[in-house]
Amino acid sequence: xxxxxxxxxxxxxxxxxxxxxxxxxxxxxxxxxxxxxxxxxxxxxxxxxxxxxxxxxxxxxxxxxxxxxxxxxxxxxxx
Length: 79
Known about the structure:
- This protein is mostly helical.
- It has one domain.
- 81% of the residues lie in helices and 0% in strands.
- It has 3 helices and no strands.
- It has helices at residues 3-21, 27-48, 56-78.
- α2 crosses α3.
- The radius of gyration is 12 Å and the shape is globular.
């Protein structure tokens, strides 16, 4: 996957995760960071469940699910 597509997916996934969990985004760099880490977590989780996404939208869904998991873990650690 190209770097630009990877960053776009990360940005969109981070923004969506912020909307789903907090109600606002984390800025461009924050969204990209959360989305990129989330894509690894989501990919790992989906592989454990036997799921695979090959499309652009599927990659965004995978990264968003991973980013939501990441934000949930971070909030548990903060509490």
